Amino acid sequence: MHKPVGKAERKEVVAIIGLGYVGLPLAVRAVERGYEVYGIARSKDKIAMINRGKSPIEDALLEADLKKYPVTATDDPKVIAKADIVLLCVPTPVDELHNPDIAPVREASEMTAKYAKKGALVVLESTVNPGVSEEIIRPIFESAGFKVGRDIHIAHCPERINPGDEKWTVKNIPRVVGSFEKKGLARAVAFYESIVDGEIRPMKSIREAEAVKIVENSFRDINIAFVNELARSFDVLDIDVRDVILGAATKPFSFMPHFPSCGVGGHCIPVDPYYLIERAKQSGFDHRFLKIAREINNSMPAYTVELLQDGLNRLRMPLNGTRVGVLGIAYKANIDDVRESPSFEIMKKLKEHQAIVETFDPHVPGMSTQKTLAALLKKCDAIILATNHREFVEQVTPELLAKYGIRAIVDGKNCLDKNAFRKSKVWYKGIGR
Q1: Which residues contact 190 (CB under 8 A, 6 or more apart)?
Q2: Lowest model confidence (mean pLDDT) among 215-229, 237-251, 266-280, 331-345
Q3: Please, is 424 exposed, middle or buried when counting C-beta atoms within 10 Å of its C-beta (0-12, 13-18, 19+)?
Q4: Contact of 155 with 123, CB cutoff 8 Å
Q5: Residue 82 has what DSSP assignment?
Q6: What does the pLDDT average to over 90-111?
Q7: Exposure b/e, 186-222, CB count within 10 A at least 16 = b
Q8: Does the N terminus or the C terminus of the chain have fewer Cβ atoms within 10 A?
Q9: DSSP 316-374
C-alpha cells in the first residue's frame, strides 16, 4: 500500500511549479497517492481549466484522472510555504541558435527559495546539463540563507514522460534520483517510491542524475540521425530503408530499430543534446558526434521539401505558386503537442520556395488553416504528411487523393501504403522508400 512520506497523522504537502506535460500528470498522481497538492502556473486560463477538473492537455487518461483526483491550481507562489516537497517542472528550451535557456529553472528556484520553509525537499524534474544543480540551483538557496543538507534538501529526478503512450506513463516509468547528501537522497527516493510503480534508482551524485536524461535522449537522437542518413543513402541506391530496418530488427540482440522521418520533434530529443554540447564546450570538450547527429536531424524538413520539389518537377509543376497541404502540426501521432515540431520548419521551407501553404491537424485545430481533411484536399495540388495521426493513416489513400486531384504526396512518416500509391497515378515518395 502506498502512503505519503512523513507522519501518518498528516498529509504531506506537495507544491509543483509548472503544470504542463510533466507537472500536471505528476500533480494528479500525487493527489491519487494521498498527498495534498498545489500546482503553480502562470496562465490564468490553464489554472481555471484545471480547477474545473478539465485538462489543458489532450490525454484521455489524464483527463479521466483529473476528474477523480482534483489538483488545486494557483498563480500564488506563497503556497510554496506550505509545502514539504517542491517539484520544479518548468521547461528548459533552446533558442533559435540552439543555446540552452536555463532562465525558467533559475526563476523557479528563486521563487522556491523565497517562500520555502526550512526542512523542505526541493526536486528539479526539468532536464538540464550536468552541473546546473551545483552551479545554479544550490547557490540560489545558499544566497537565500539556507544550508543545503540541513535547512533544505535538493535533489534531481529527471522527468520521463512520453505523451500519447498508453503503456508507459508517469505512474510506472522507472526513475533515477540524485542529491547532494544522503538524507535528501533518501527523502527523494521515498517520495518517488510512493507515487511510481516502477524502480527508483538512486544515483551516486546529483551530477550523475543530470547526465542520465541527457544520455537517454542523445542516444535516441544519434540513432535517428543514423537511419535518416541511411534513408538518404538508400534512396540513391533504390533500397527501401524501412524494409531493411525491419529485416535487421529480426536479430534478437545488439540491434534496436529506429526509423527515419521528416524531422525530430518534441520537448527532449531536439533539445537535450545541446545542453551537453554547450556545457562540455565550456569545459573544453567538443562533442563532434552529437553535433553531427543534430545537423542531420535538423536537415530533414528541408530534405522533405526537396523530395516534393523533385516530384513536382517530374510532373512539370513548379513548387513556386503550388498550393501544398501539410498534414499534421503536432510533433507525434495522436497528441496535440507541437513543441519543436518539424512541421514548422517544413512550412517555413515551403514558403521560402514561394509555395502556398495550407495546414490541417485534427488535434491542433487552432493552428490549422483548414477545418477538415476534405477542405484542405479541395484547395491543394500536393501534400506533405508530417504527422502520422491515426486519422491520416486510416483516411489518406490513393483513391482519396485522386478524387481531389492531388498530384503528389511526400509521406514524411512512412506510414502510408507505398505499394498502393505506386500503383496509382498519384506521385508518391517516402523518406528512404
Answers
A1: 5
A2: 266-280
A3: middle
A4: yes
A5: G
A6: 91
A7: bbbbebbbbbbebebebbebbbebbbbbbebbbebbb
A8: N
A9: T--STT-EEEEE--SSSTTS---TT-HHHHHHHHHHHTT-EEEEE-TT-GGG-SSSSHH
Q: How far apart, in whole angstroms, are the C-alpha atoms of residue 61 and residue 64?
A: 5
Model confidence pLDDT, tens digit, residues 293-344: 999 999 999 999 999 999 999 999 999 999 999 999 999 999 999 999 999 9
pLDDT at 97 over 80: no
- Residues recorded for the chain: 433
For residues 268 and 333, what is the distance between their CA atoms, to the nearest angstrom? 16
| pLDDT over 90, % of the chain | 91
- What secondary structure letter does DSSP report for 293? H
pLDDT-derived band at 2 (thresholds 50, 70, 90) equals low
Q: Residue 8: is its pLDDT beyond 70? A: no
Q: Are 355 and 186 in contact (CB under 8 A)?
A: no
User: Beta-carbon neighbour count of residue 291 at 10 Å?
Assistant: 15
Q: Examine the residue annotation and report whether 157 is marked as an active-site residue of this protein.
A: no
Catalytic residue among 262, 268, 380, 415: 268
Provide the 3-class DSSP secondary structure of residue 386: coil
pLDDT by residue (tens digit) across 381-393?
Answer: 999 999 999 999 9
**Torsion angle of C-alpha atoms 382, 389, 357, 296, degrees rounded to 10:** -90
**pLDDT band at residue 22 under the 50/70/90 scheme:** very high
- Which domains are present in the chain? 13-205 (3.40.50.720), 299-430 (3.40.50.720)
Q: Which grid coordinates are listed for 36? A: 495534498
Give the torsion sign (CA, 173, 176, 182, 184): negative
